[in-house]
Amino acid sequence: MSYWRVTSSFLLARARPRLLQTLRPPSTMNECRKNTNITANNNTILCDKTISKKHLFLEKRSMSSHTDDTKDSKATQDLPNPLELTPQDRLAIEERQNKAFAFFAETLQIYGVEELIFCFNGGKDCTVLLDLLMRFLRQQNISSGDIPMLYIKSGDSFAEIDDFVKRCVRNYRVELVQYEGSLKEALTHMSADMPRIRAVFVGSRNTDPYCQHLAPMQPTDNDWPPMMRLNPLLEWSYHDVWHYIHMNSVPYCSLYDRGYTSIGNRSNTIPNPHLRRTDAQCACDTDTANTDTVCSCDPSGYRPAWELQDATMERAGRLPRK
User: Name one GO biological process term (predicted).
Assistant: First the structure.
């Protein structure tokens, strides 16, 4: 995939000074940021432009039956089928999907497609949002490149996340708008560079910290750039997200296979301790001569994210802020 810098007036690539940060009381928009990143680097805007075609899905990983990128298909992990979903589970996810599609349709009655952008951080929730939105656009005969993807890059981000974002850009054929800094800084500079944008899709759920009182459509706080925050996944649960991913064979970041359940930066995220494998789950042999037990598995290994039973422990792998 080739990269090029946008040279039009509203996507001019340039370094910006870092905004001064002031201490304010926590607010809904300030706290409910879904894995945003803060770095000392300057803010920049880049664009990864792909061929403007209608949305194509990965082979054997979505509703479509073909792709022109078999190399990427091999690069994405083979998705296991660990969940035997009940008919009730499937019906519930179909209802969730229908409500999301209705939300997208309502949004397009209020905003033009050129006024929209979606925030993507490579996490499971945003991955579901991306897949839902692209499927809806395809149904409406709207190009996937018409609604850009906003990604906030950090020097402390996981390489797996950065790589997954690139694959999503390539495979869903979206336009990437990239900044460095905090979410507020990114939206501030994006508003200056892309003044046509009036609303942003976000993958927040009401079980996320400080998000329990969010509305599906909610304006940003007064000290933020003025735009509408669109939250189509508010009522989705942790297990809804994984049910959708497995039902639709949606590719996801490989970190979730290794016990991560909520992904921030490398400095504040570890595998969820509730998914750590125990010796009882390993294949063990007992030496009858000295009664020593030898286990062949790695006791520090972790089960995949979807095996977390208690959804309230989703963020147990997040380290407290210093």
Answer: FAD biosynthetic process
